[in-house]
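Write out this protein's structure.
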Amino acid sequence: MSLREIVQEFPGVRVFLTGRPYIGNEIVRCFTNTLEIPFNPAYADIISYLEMRLERDIYPEAMNDELRADILRIIPVKAAEV
C-alpha cells in the first residue's frame, strides 16, 4: 500500500513531509489539501549544524583542514541558493 493510498483510505491520517522546493509540484499532484511551510535556515544555523556533524564524524582521519573549510564554506552558500 502506498502512502497516497493510506491517506485516501484513512482520512484522519496526517503526513509531514520535508523536501527540496522542486518536489513541491509532485506533492501537490499526489495529495490534496496540502499546506506548505517555507523553511529558510539562517546561515549561522547551517554552520552550527555542519560543525556538529563534522565533530561526530566516525572517520575524522578521512578529512583534512582544507576539506573541512570547503564544507563550511560551500554548503551554506549552496543551501541558500535553493
